[in-house]
Amino acid sequence: MRVACVLVTHLRVKAEISRQPHLKNRPVLVVDRSPGRGKAQVLDSFPDTATGYGTSLEEALSHHAGAVVLDADEPHYREVFSRILTALQRVSDRVEGSDLGIAYVRLDGLEGLYHGEAGAVSALMNALPEHLTPRIGVADAKFPALVAARICEPRRAFKVPDDVKAFLGPRSIGLLPISADVKKEMRQLGLRTMGAVASMSRDMLTDRFGFSGGRAWALCNGTDDSPVVSMLSEEPIVEHISLPFPSSSIQMLFVVVDTLLKRGYARPEMKGGCVGEAALRCCAYGAPPWDRSVAFKQPAGTWEKASLAVKGRLQLDPPSIPVEDVTLTLSGFTGESGVQMGLLDGAKEGRERQLVEADRRLRSREREGYALYKVAQVAPWHPALETRFLQMPIDPTGRDAIRPLNAPVPVQVKEGPEGQPVSVQIGRCWCLVVDIVDEWSFHLWWLPQPVDRTYYCIDSSDGSRLTLFRDRSNGRWFRQRG
After folding, report:
1. Using DSSP, how many helices (H) and how many strands (E) does the chain show?
2. d(CA 215, CA 473)
3. How far apart, in whole angstroms, are the C-alpha atoms of residue 301 and residue 303?
């Protein structure tokens, strides 16, 4: 049995940073303050691993007095992990979800699909978002694959050598899946490495530590016969998108819903099937999640039919928060509905399929990103230019690829006595500002991340017309298409 262990370390912290990006470069403690636990305990910490799982909050804060303390949101973390498992199931149908952040994937039989084992491992790595920095260990059993994943670098894979026992020998017994009390007693006896445990008598370890001792001896000797228990294929389909900026635009939400539905219906397990229910969750920093469910009167066999029902619900009851993350869950699956689409719908679907196939051919040649994109107008009234249009890949399986069409670009500007631009660097040259054609300002103070800008439409000495703005919150200058 050939197994890959896909490991996402610090999943709780990474999930929090994903929905609160301002935490990225700060120490974070995720704690459990549930009444039955007594003192608050740390469930996850980053970047310092010295204050790991089970440490008291007081001890953790003694190491990081300025750390951000967050109450654990276990349902959200399980949802994130569910999305990870769903992404891995697109590569292999034999995926087992273990502890939070740990998944096992059978590699046997995938070599032909992905041009060898290395190709299958690359497909697993590429299936997950880059910010999760997954690690992958490959071995002939689950435990050595887990150890390999633990010791390898982020976004790297490590293949266990043929001599599994020698590979495990110098590793700490802290990696063994046994209780902390047993490991503590083993250390007191001088058994600090797996090699030391493997050198002992199995009967002696079993007599001293019971089943845990015998299990530890077998694992340290490279023996692990536990199978990969595949997840049920009937599980709901979960798709997620993080928006490039918070938005209250219903048009933006419509675009996101359509994108998520296309992704969901493009999944292999949806082929020929229908969906009975869709659940939508919208999240924003500092606000409770907004959840709504839509039960379809008739099972929806196409994303277009599902879209009509979901959008109808959104028009009657839109979110009251500036949305940052959207999660769509499809469930209630049935067989084919037998209702055919019209000829015009078929022609449109055929054109879209041709574009998707062309995009995939181009990507296979270039081996980079997405080649073909479409543009959606989502908030033409918004004063911040980058929020008016979104760019997304033609291919519905594109992962978290929605981005602003007109993102600001940092630029060097020399200011006059009243803060107005007097010269701007274009390429390697500095150009004088010949004329300020227009000037306007706005301050969106009510947003989770306020936007405070002054725009200038200028004519430069090289004959070009540019749109610049100064971010009044930090004094930085940007260039943007008008």
Report:
1. 14, 22
2. 59
3. 7
pLDDT tens digits along 10-68? 999 999 998 888 888 888 888 887 665 567 788 888 775 455 556 777 777 767 777 88
Please check whether residue 45 is in contact with residue 51, taking contact to mean a CB–CB distance below 8 angstroms: yes
Q: Extract the runs of DSSP E, i.e. beta strands, from 394-475.
A: 403-404, 409-410, 413-415, 421-426, 429-444, 451-460, 465-471
Mean pLDDT of 319-331: 87
CB 234 within 8 A of CB 316: no
Give yes or no for a contact between 158 and 137, defined as CB atoms under 8 angstroms apart: yes
SS3 state at 337? coil
Cα distances (angstroms) measured from residue 186 to each of 138, 183, 201, 274, 319: 28, 5, 14, 55, 55
Indicate the DSSP class of residue 51.
Answer: S
Closest CA to 356 of 342, 341, 371, 375: 371
**Domains in the chain: ranges and CATH:** 3-159 (3.40.1170.60), 164-220 (1.10.150.20), 237-377 (3.30.1490.100), 409-480 (no CATH)
Identify whether the C-beta of residue 455 lies closer than 8 Å to the C-beta of residue 398: no
Phi, psi for 442 (deg, rounded to 5): -155, 155
Q: What is d(CA 322, CA 239) in angstroms, rounded to the nearest whole number?
A: 20
β-pair type (28-32, 68-71): parallel
> The whole model's pTM is what?
0.51
Average pLDDT, the chain: 84
